[in-house]
Amino acid sequence: MTPLPPADPRDIASLEPVLIVGTGLIGASIGCALTSQGVEVHLWDLDPANAMVAAGRGAGMLSQLDPGDYRLVVVATPPGAVAATVAERLRWHPSAVVTDTASVKSAVLSALRETELDLSRYVGSHPMSGTQYTGPLTAVPELFVDRTWVVTPRHENSAESVERVRRLARLCGARTVSLDTREHDTAVAEVSHLPQLMSILTAANLRHAQRSHLPLAGGGIRDVTRIAQSQTGMWRQILTANRPAVREQLSQVREDLDTLIGVLDNPDELESFLAMGRAGARSLGGKHGKEMSETTTVVVEIPDQPGALARLFADIDRLGVNIEDLSVEHDQARDAGFLSIEVDRTRADDLRAWMREHHWGLRS
Ligand SMILES: NC(=O)C1=CN([C@@H]2O[C@H](COP(=O)(O)OP(=O)(O)OC[C@H]3O[C@@H](n4cnc5c(N)ncnc54)[C@H](O)[C@@H]3O)[C@@H](O)[C@H]2O)C=CC1
Ligand SMILES: O=C(O)C(=O)Cc1ccc(O)cc1
Predict the structure, then answer these.
(1) CB of 64 within 8 A of CB of 113?
(2) What dotted CATH number matches 287-362?
(3) pLDDT tens across 51-105, in order?
(4) Ranges for the Prephenate/arogenate dehydrogenase domain (predicted)?
(5) Cβ(103) to ligand 2 under 6 A?
(6) CB 21 within 8 A of CB 44
(7) Where are the domains positioned within the chain?
(8) 1-15, 320-334, 346-360: which has the minimum mean pLDDT?
(9) Distance in Å, CA 87 to ligand 1 centroid
């Protein structure tokens, strides 16, 4: 993972001490990122064992300050508990800006509006990074580096409150994007909730497969089904909170599925459909926000021999080409693997020539 970038001392001074409420994967990862930047962090969790594990992983201290001392409270509880926890913390910590990390923002805001609390110190946010795991043992300080962190400011927030949350994201290495609450929920239905369900659909469909067919599974299905392993309880809450937007996405996919089934007998139309998939994947861009069109993939065959990968990396290193991303795929039938290396488009031909010169087999 990319290391955390150096912190701006002004960012630290303006938001500490920080209190993190809910020290699971996200809360503890934020805590670890902040403490590694030198920020004073305190931790609280409904389950004291989780707070203890998070503290043990370096996410912050278990001791609690006077409630009025905190300048930033980060609520990272499961989505269903977020609104009540934010409300409670707004009441308890009069000097703090309170933010949350919930994956759906409108439901939290509607519930908070029902409390009739002054919400000027509440600024919603959502780090667009996670894993299929849960709990503080799986926390990673670099989880948010180079990822997008959405902030959902409202007109009643002061510029300083919003900036405090942006500084939090920056200290965790993320880049911030400001979105209206409703637009955020539509966006995450498109880029997070539907993909989660497509992963689950693919994985669930394996129940129809014969057990003896499963060992044929290669890198593709493993990539597609990784997030299907996520906690069902958390996703039940996320999808329920965002059901109008998710329903719309699913209906669109239902139409596409019907079209796809219909064009299977027409190779030209089928290819046009497949091209929409390529275009969609490319529209996401590459690592560090680099447009994918700026990079290209070189696929190198790696013999299944000890040290082959190390030799390959050493050869690439000698050429001085930066690896933007990579993935390995195994060819079960041939005791070989394929390393897909994403490199700057302008260096791809040099790399291909260099690889051939050093007797590596290329697939593309
Ligand atoms: N898991 C992911 O990939 C991502 C999750 N999120 C959001 O971040 C939040 C946290 O998610 P995770 O860290 O994955 O969950 P998690 O299950 O790993 O951690 C949640 C923690 O909150 C604690 N908790 C539960 N109720 C509480 C309460 N009332 N008060 C204080 N602590 C309480 C639990 O004991 C647990 O330690 C969720 O709202 C989720 O929507 C955001 C981005 C990514
Ligand atoms: O594991 C991944 O790749 C994810 O993208 C996880 C994720 C889950 C929920 C969110 O609200 C945001 C990100």
Answers:
(1) no
(2) 3.30.70.260
(3) 999 999 999 999 999 999 999 999 999 999 999 999 999 999 999 999 999 999 9
(4) 16-294
(5) yes
(6) yes
(7) 9-178, 186-260, 287-362
(8) 320-334
(9) 16
